[in-house]
Design goal:
With 206 residues, the protein is α/β, with parallel strands linked by helices. The protein has a single domain, classed as Rossmann fold. Helices cover 33% and strands 21% of the residues. It has a 7-stranded parallel β-sheet with strand order 4-2-6-1-7-8-9, sandwiched between helices. Strand 8, helix 5 and strand 9 form a beta-alpha-beta unit. Helix 1 crosses helix 6. The chain is globular, with a radius of gyration of 16 Å.
């Protein structure tokens, strides 16, 4: 089973939209291990609504936390303790898209972060969105991934094109640039399908 782990350079950079597009492009299954807040309509519900192929399956969260906070804090409020060893990958013969929470160093407990959920063989997709400081955040995220031994890292830009930002990230990181998700006025199954077609080849070649 091929796993594609989707993480971001921070919050609100578009990981869930990216997850839907990657899931659609690969006709993969989807899983968000930890959902914090928005349990009535969480990220898995959104991705399921946006993905239109008939092959994808959607697995329940390993931890569904009530409060929209960092997982470690939300778990404490719920009286739970998250351990990476308890986050068991669903059984599937299909490719699996795994969506993280926040950035790579978001704590899931006092001693573990989102990084501890990424498996050594995962293909890691880092979603980057342009803002003042995003180059720094992108390169820092890549450095910590590399320091943990992850080698198959692809950067996926989200939003308006910024050639100078994108080119310096490509040059300084040495990572594969998977492409860019256009600024979507509305996220629908059709816009997700269109973006998926544009990115399909680069994702398959990771």
């Amino acid at each position: 089973m091929e796993r594609y782990f989707i993480t971001g350079i921070g919050t609100e950079v578009g990981k869930t939209v990216a997850s839907a597009i990657v899931t659609q492009a690969l006709e993969a299954d989807y899983w968000k291990p930890i959902q914090a807040g928005d349990l009535d309509y969480g990220d898995a519900d959104k991705v399921q609504d946006w993905v239109s192929n008939s092959k994808s399956k959607f697995f329940p969260n390993a931890f569904a936390l009530k409060t929209p906070m960092s997982p470690h804090a939300a778990a404490e409020i719920d009286g739970l303790e998250i351990q990476a060893s308890k986050v068991i990958t669903p059984n599937t013969d299909n490719r699996l898209v795994v969506e993280g929470a926040g950035g790579v160093l978001v704590p899931i407990s006092d001693i573990e972060t989102i990084l501890d959920l990424i498996q050594p063989t995962d293909k890691v997709i880092l979603v980057s969105r342009h803002y003042l400081g995003s180059i720094n955040h992108t390169l820092l995220s890549i450095e910590i991934l590399k320091s943990r031994g992850f080698e198959n890292i692809g950067v996926l830009f989200n939003g308006e094109e910024h050639p100078t930002t994108e080119s310096i990230i490509a040059k300084m990181s040495g990572c594969t640039i998977l492409g860019r998700i256009e600024e979507l006025k509305e996220v629908t199954p059709e816009t997700v399908r269109q973006q998926a077609e544009l990115l399909k080849e680069s994702l398959l070649n990771m």
